[in-house]
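Ticket #4471: structure export looks truncated?
Reporter: QA, pipeline team
Priority: medium

Steps to reproduce: submit the single chain below to the structure queue and open the exported record.
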Amino acid sequence: MSEIMHVLDRGVSKQQRSLNDYAAEVSEHADVREGVSLPLGTHEYDRGVNFALFSRHASRVRLELFDQSADATPARLIEFDSSRNRTGDVWHVWIEGIQPGQLYAYRDGGLAS
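Actual output as written to the record:
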């Protein structure tokens, strides 16, 4: 907070951001980011993996990451945000630190309205 105030005090930026813009900026510095829509599938780049899934009728998508093939419950769930993780009919997310061999599944929720 002090860094933000310092910048504002020096007059570098006096424009206030909406909470959604601020949250999006902060989220982009975490281990889960927006990702890109192409190419489809899973692709490793920049110390992580991009997941891109085509689904014309999904109203929501969740990525489930599993530690072992016998696990019935995922170790981690990533809910896709339709405003950030969707481009047209492609849902996408990038996750840092995913290694080759990671077990995963998608779940979609219903028809888009």
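Status: closed, not a bug. The export was complete when the record was re-opened. Leaving a note from the reviewer for reference: Residues 1-14 have pLDDT under 50 and may be disordered.
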